[in-house]
Structure formats: C-alpha cells, structure tokens
Amino acid sequence: MSNTLRISIDGKEKEAQAGDSILQAHLKGDETVTANIGCMGQGVCGACRCLVRKEGERETATRLACETLAEEGMQVSFMDYYQPARVSRYGLEDIRDGWEWMKHLRDVFPEASNCRHCSGCDRACPKGITVQEGIALASRGELQAAAEVFDACIMCNLCTLACPENIRPNHVGLFLRRAHAAQTLRPGDLLRRLDQQRRGELAIDLSAVPTAQGERA
Amino acid sequence: MTQATTAIPHAEALARLASGATPTLRKSGLSRELLLERYHPDHAPAAAATLQIGANAGERCHPTLAELLQANALIDGFDLAGAEQLSTDVLVIGGGGAGAAAALTAASHGADVIMACKLRLGDSNTVMAEGGIQAALGRDDSPQRHFEDTLRGGHYRADPLLVAQLASDAPDAIRWLIELGMHFDVTDAATDGGTLRYKQAGGCTQPRILSYRDYTGLEMMRVLRETVELDPAIRLLNRCPAVELLSHDDGSCAGAVLFDLEYQRFVVVSARSVILATGGCGRLHLQGFPTSNHYGATADGLVLAYRLGAKLRDLDSFQYHPTGIAFPSRLAGGLISEAARSCGAWLINGLGERFIDELAPRDVVTAAILRECADGRGIERDGRIGVFLDTPRLARQWPEGIEHHLPALAHLAAKCGIDPATEPMLVYPTLHYQNGGVVIDGEGRSTVPGLLCAGEVSGGIHGRNRLMGNALLDIIAFGRRAGQRAAEDIGKRPLRRGDIEHVYSWQRTLVQSGLPRQARAPRLYPGPGHYPLHRNERSLA
Ligand SMILES: Cc1cc2nc3c(=O)[nH]c(=O)nc-3n(C[C@H](O)[C@H](O)[C@H](O)COP(=O)(O)OP(=O)(O)OC[C@H]3O[C@@H](n4cnc5c(N)ncnc54)[C@H](O)[C@@H]3O)c2cc1C
Ligand code: SF4
Ligand code: SF4
Ligand code: FES
Questions:
Q1: What pLDDT, in 10s, does the model give residues B363-375?
Q2: For chain A, N or C: smaller number of CB within 10 Å?
Q3: Oxidoreductase among the record's keywords (chain B) (predicted)?
Q4: B41 band by pLDDT with thresholds 50, 70 and 90
C-alpha cells in the first residue's frame, strides 16, 4: 500500500500514497487549503471539482477530487466557483402554482428549449446523471420525470459550465424538483398535526419534565 | 484515544461471521453509567481542563478547545485601517442550514442581510447529513413524547424550555421546508395525501425520523442554497471567514471583521445584529479521534463569541458517533449513518457476539464499541481496529433494502471496495457533534446583546447527548427563531461603527493571567495555518 506516486496539482508537484484521493494529495503541502474543499470524501458538496488529465491521455475529464484516486503522472487543476453573470431569477410564487408550471419554466429558463444535444453536460457530470435526457424531458413537458433525473444532483455546476447554450441544466432540475415538492407534497399526518397545534392542542407540559431520578412512566 | 493492545485478525472474525450462527447478545455486566464513565472519551483524563479566563472561568472544558478559547485575536486595530466598510441590518456568519434558515427568515421579515461564509454557502456539515430530521407526526406520537425523549437522551442536562420549543416547532419547520421545495419520503401515497415515512432512531420511544432517501442533508441544503442565492435581500459573501466580532462601548455586538480571501483584504461589516451559525468543531480531532465533519468545522464561532464575553456551556461534552469508517484509512472517520442500525443492522465483535443494543443512545453504543476494542475483542485489518457492522445479515433479511433505502451506504461501501451484501464494514467511533456551545434563550439570543446564535454553535438544546435527527431540526427551528428576532430588533439596535475594544481588554486579561499571547484563534482552517492573513503576523508581535 505504501508506494509513492507523483501528481501535479495546479502546476505544483505533489507526492501521494497509492490509495490517496486527489484531495488528500492536495492537502499534503505546507500551504493551507482554503478553497475547493468541503465534505472531504462524501462527494456531496461539489466544492472539489477539478479537471483531470491522466498520464499519456490527451483528453481531460471533470471529476470530484475527493472521490477520485490519485494516479502516477496525473495533472489536476481545480475549477473556481463563480457566479454566472446571468442568474435565472425566480421567486417562491413561481414554484407554487401548479397550473402555470410550464409557463414559469419557459419564463425562467427560456434557453432550455435550445438544447442542441451535444452531450457536453452528460460528459461533465461526475455523478453519472443523464442531464441531457432531463432537459429533453423538461422541454417535452414531462416535468416530473425530468425532476426525477436530477434526484442525486449535488449542484456542482459542472453541467452548467459545459453547456454551450447557457441552459444551466442543474438549476432547471432543481426548479422542477422544488416545484414538485412545493405543489404536491401535502402529507395528511403533517396537516393533522399542524391543525391540532393551531387549535392549541398538544402544548407541551413543562411541569412534566422528567428527571433522571423520578422518571415518568 | 483508547487503542487496543490486541485484536482479533480480520480474516478470523470474518470466517466466524460467515459460519452463519446467529450472534447472541452478550450481557454487558456494566450499568450504562459505568460503561460511559469508563469508556466514553468525554470521561478520559485527557479530556479535562479548567478555563482560567472569560465568562466560563473555573468551568470544565476540553483542553484543545480551552487553548483556542483562551487565545489571542488574529487581528489588531492596525488591520482595520484600510478595510472595506459594509453595513447591514443583520449579518449572518456561516453558510450551513442554520445560517441559511436565519438569513431567509430575517429577509422575509424585512431585514437587509449579509451572509458571510468561510468556504462557500453550503459547504458544511448540513449538506452531509444523511439519516434525517425528527418531527412528531405519528398518531401515537406527540410533541410531548419528542420533548421527553430528547431530555432523556441528553441525560436531563438540556434546557427544558429550549427542548419544548424544539419539539413543538418541528411540524411547522417541516412545512416551511416543503414550501421551499424540499422533498421527504412518503408512504401510503394513496391515502390522505400520503403519510411521511418515519424511521426509528436510537433513544426514541416512537419512530419519528423523516428523511429524504439517505441524503436528507443534501436535499435540504440544495433547496436552502438556491433559495438564498435567489433572494435579492441577501448579499452573499463566499470565502469571507469572520476573524473577529466588533463591539460597542457598552459591550454589545456591533458587527464583524471578515477576511476576503479572493481580494486578500479585511472587510468590516457593521450590523444591528449578528447571527453566528458557524457550526461545530470536529476538525479539531479531539483526543486524536477521526471526524465525520466537513473541513470548516473548527470551533470559530465559540472562540469569537467567548472573546466578546458570551457565556458558553457543556464545553466538555461531544458526540462520538458509533459508526465511523475504520477501514480503509483513506476514508477513516467518514460516517455510516445510524439509518443502517435503525433498519436493523447489528454490531458484532471479533468473537462473533453482539455486545450492545444497537439502538441505545449513541454515547452508550460508542462506549460499548470502545470497550470491545480496549478489551481485545475488536477486529484488526491492516493496522486499523474496529467492530463489524453486519450488513450481510441485513441484506439477507431485506433484499433490495440496502440499494433502495440506503443508497448512500451502498455508495460508501463501494468506495471502501466492499459489497455490503456479502461483506461487513469495519467501524470505529468518530468525532461527530459538539453537544455544548453558546448559551441562548428561546429566540437565539446569547448573553451579549446584539449577538444571536443558531445551530451546532449553540448549546443547551441537546444536553450532553444528541439524538439522531434533532440537529437538522434544531438548525431550522432555531435558525428561523434567531432570524425573526434579529429582524424584529432592527428598530431597537443601533447601526454605528463598532470597534475591537474587547480585544484589547482580552489581551490585558491574558497578560494578567500569565497566559501566552502568541497562540491565536479562531483556527479558520485545519492544517498548517499558512494563509495570507498571516502576513500581519509581524505587526502583531
Ligand atoms: C456526516 C454527518 C451526518 C449527519 N447526519 C445528521 C442527521 O442525519 N440528522 C441530524 O439531525 N443531524 C445530522 N448531523 C448533524 C447536523 O448535520 C449538523 O449538526 C447541522 O447540520 C449543523 O448545521 P449548522 O448550520 O449549525 O452548521 P454547518 O452546517 O456545519 O454550517 C456551518 C457553516 O459555517 C461555516 N463557518 C465556520 N466558521 C466560519 C467563520 N469563521 N466564518 C464564516 N463561516 C464559517 C462553515 O464552513 C459552514 O459552512 C450530521 C453531521 C455530519 C457531519
Ligand atoms: S450539477 Fe450538473 S454536473 Fe453536477 S451533479 Fe448535478 S447534474 Fe451532474
Ligand atoms: S450541454 Fe447544454 S446543449 Fe449540450 S446536451 Fe447538455 S443541455 Fe443540451
Ligand atoms: S469535498 Fe465535497 S464533493 Fe469533494
């Protein structure tokens, strides 16, 4: 397990042990890491997105540094997080009205219908999400199915960076997911409990504070 | 950290497990109290120190934390001279779930908000939460039971008023999250608009964990982040850690000093109220334990609040989650959610025995695992020691269960190179949660006027042990309370530029008490501590 390998991160040579992730190799220097790091291995925050070129290959791939093992001769550059110039603005009212769902989607994400099926988003996604299919479903009006596609999306924005049409696919996906929950999720148990509380039932009896000694039955 | 002198080799333990005999539950022979006293890390001699200065002087505190709490500030008046000046009604520090809930609520009550994040909004413990969030919705359940379970789980050391608010806020917190567009798992979709799915948590008398698959925190955080980013009343500053608070002459909080890493300069934010939501301290690796926490969990909020005079509590009480990954070492400390145990997975020692009720409170299960390892009944694989989480048995009883209801577990096992359906995972306790924190009242106010706190940085809600699912609830319930209070205080609190007079008086106290002035805090980032802020080191000497 203890063979050392060399990889290049943001132009600096680093030594890593076989079995280290790229992120672990990155942490080994004497500079404090202050960006492109968050959950450190769980692969859920998307902070550690990077471009990776393996030795002897021409193509680069987008990856999460905390979920990718370091390999001898790898070249890695981290990708800064940025706020795209044109943020699609919408408010909560736009996701609450089920009857206008499709219109709101068109208003907020007019580019979604311009997809040229280049698959750039699919190649960029480190989670293997079929992004392009999600956008196709959305433009056909199959909104719930489209929302479903983005179920495990970590919002790393790599598909947004990759899209030549400025579609921002993951934000389309999240818009649809949010709309779906906000409009359709009305669990009976929650409604009943809220109603009981509104009527002043179920207030907590503080005098019934149990204690370690005399616990209530 | 209690490390075993001996342990049973992995291959031998594996063979024993594979033999198919149904493991029996060995009698403990120790009361829960004795088990905790002898084996829980909080009770180790290495976990005790006494604070010498500040609002908690004379009280017990973990020595690693005490060092930070009693350290000198990172900045001096000199640093503020050329700083950029901003002002706002409410400054929220910390971009996890508590910060987001506070910012959104303050904004919806009419406040102008600045939100400062050390990493980016969402790079937090919140996004990593898997298991779920508690809310008493079941027919046989009630806020009262939730209240009593939480108090009992926390060994009756929580503030009953805060716990009562936690339990009764829960249903509305869930409603709020759904309104923002968060999904929860549902059963019986056919009847009555469905019923939310309840999972059992250790230490609870009723199943009351609501979840979204086993990435509840991811679903929560992506919805909260998008909502914050789209809110025109919130100005988001990413990569701008708070390095010090600002004070008025009367000692109240006046805002904070941030360090903007992008432009490498200080930013002074004057605010009517500050809401600290900086989370926990797992990355301090207390007593050498691995941690489940994100990179930014370095206790900054506690340090900042303490220096300004805020009272803290339970600074010697931490949660070590029973099931951190022990093997491979690359992933050591990573969390295997309690969901696996709530679904029925057993813990097995090297002799093939069960040794504890897997759904006992977390501190008890942790102490029991540490006891097995200390007494040589642990399992060793390539120098790593732990016990088995018996997922193969679970898979046999519940085919498809793992893949369908525990996808994060399946994903994690794959990263460990393990097929959970055929091979058990090796687990060892991991530093998971800071039980104590800043003392707050029912509206998130600390003992310093103008300084509010929400989330893991605050104390008193969970006593000395937190139940699964109560942290995600706490950040939403108290994040909203703090946000609303701060917004309602707009008319009552001044918007004047503050100063760092409290830092000067702190430095005098350090000298008087003979404490070193070289140690500096907050830590901000784990690791060697070489980042641009420290250009200023020379001017401070
Ligand atoms: C792996 C894991 C699984 C968990 N699972 C569950 C679960 O299933 N159910 C449950 O209830 N709880 C769970 N918890 C606990 C729960 O997730 C956390 O306690 C909770 O999310 C804390 O929220 P918070 O907003 O207070 O802190 P965080 O979410 O940690 O957010 C704090 C933020 O503040 C930032 N920050 C820190 N210092 C500074 C500074 N100086 N300046 C500016 N910003 C700063 C941090 O970088 C971070 O972004 C889990 C925790 C972990 C780590
Ligand atoms: S943001 Fe895009 S690239 Fe990233 S996980 Fe989601 S779908 Fe995949
Ligand atoms: S990258 Fe953009 S244009 Fe290309 S397939 Fe994906 S969504 Fe369509
Ligand atoms: S550090 Fe969070 S996804 Fe890699």
A1: 999 999 999 999 9
A2: C
A3: yes
A4: very high
**Could you tell me which chain A residue has the CA closest to the CA of B230?**
A89
Domains of chain A, first to last: 4-78 (3.10.20.30), 92-198 (1.10.1060.10)
Confidence (pLDDT) at A210? 65
DSSP single-letter state for residue A212: S
Q: What are the start and end residues of each CATH 3.50.50.60 domain in chain B? A: 77-317+435-492
Chain A, window 59-98: residues with a beta carbon less than 8 angstroms from a chain B beta carbon: 67, 81, 87, 89-92, 95-96
Ligand 2 atom nearest A124 alpha carbon: 3
pLDDT at B514: 95
Closest Cα partner for B431 from B505, B522, B363, B529? B363
Could you tell me the distance, in angstroms and rounded to a whole number, from the CA of residue B238 to the centre of ligand 4? 16
**Known catalytic residue at B222:** no
Q: At what angle do helices A101-108 and A169-184 cross, to 10 degrees?
A: 150
What token pair was written down for A152?
A: 């495990």
CA distances from A119 to A115, A123, B11, B473 (A): 9, 6, 46, 40
Cα Rg of chain A (Å, integer): 24
Binning pLDDT at 50, 70 and 90, where does residue B1 land?
A: very low
Domain B77-317+435-492 is classified in which CATH homologous superfamily?
A: FAD/NAD(P)-binding domain (3.50.50.60)
Q: How far is residue B4's CA from residue B468's CA, in Å, rounded to a whole number?
A: 28
Which residues of B are less than 8 Å from A154 in CB distance? 218, 222
Nearest CA in chain B to A198: B172
- Contact present, B317 and B151 (Cβ < 8 Å): no
Contact (CB<8Å) B334/A42: yes
b/e A28-58 (16+ beta carbons within 10 angstroms → b): ebeebbbbbbbbbbbbbbbbbbbebbeeeee
Distance between CA B311 and CA B290 in Å, rounded? Answer: 28
Please say if the pLDDT value at position B536 is more than 70.
no
| Residue-level pLDDT, tens digit, chain A, 217 residues | 458 999 999 999 999 998 899 999 999 888 899 999 999 999 999 999 999 999 999 999 999 999 999 999 999 999 987 665 556 789 888 888 889 888 999 999 999 999 999 999 999 999 999 999 999 999 999 999 999 999 999 999 999 999 999 999 999 999 999 999 999 999 999 999 999 999 999 999 988 776 655 444 3
Distance of CA B5 to the CA centre of its chain: 31
Q: Where in chain B is the domain with CATH 3.90.700.10?
A: 8-30+323-431
* Residues 152-211 in B contacting A (C-alpha not used; CB under 8 Å): 152, 155-156, 160-161, 164, 167-168, 171-172, 174-175, 178-184, 186, 191-196
pLDDT tens, position by position, A190-216: 999 999 999 999 999 988 776 655 444
Give the whole-angstrom CA distance, residue A63 versus residue A124. Answer: 8
Residue A215's pLDDT is: 46
Catalytic residue among B16, B313, B354, B362: B362
Assigned architecture for domain B8-30+323-431: Alpha-Beta Complex (3.90)
A162 CA distance to ligand 3 middle (Å)? 8
- Residues 411-450 on B with a CB inside 8 Å of A are 411, 415
Whole-model pTM: value is 0.95
